Amino acid sequence: MILLPIEILEVNQEKIREIDEVIKSIYRLIIYSRHHSDDDLLDTYLGSIHNLRQLVGIKNAQMEAQTDEEAETYLKNLQASLEFVVEEINSHVNFEKEIQLFQLLRLISPESNKKHPNRYRHTLVQIGSHICPDEKEVPGLVSELFYRMNLIQNPIIKAIYFHHELIRIHPFADGNGRVTRIAKNWLLMFDLYPPIFINDAAQKEEYVNTLSSSFSTLTTSPNEWNEHTKAFFDQELSRLLTNANLLYAAVNKIGINRIENEK
Question: Residue ranges of the domains in the chain?
Answer without folding.
Answer: 6-255
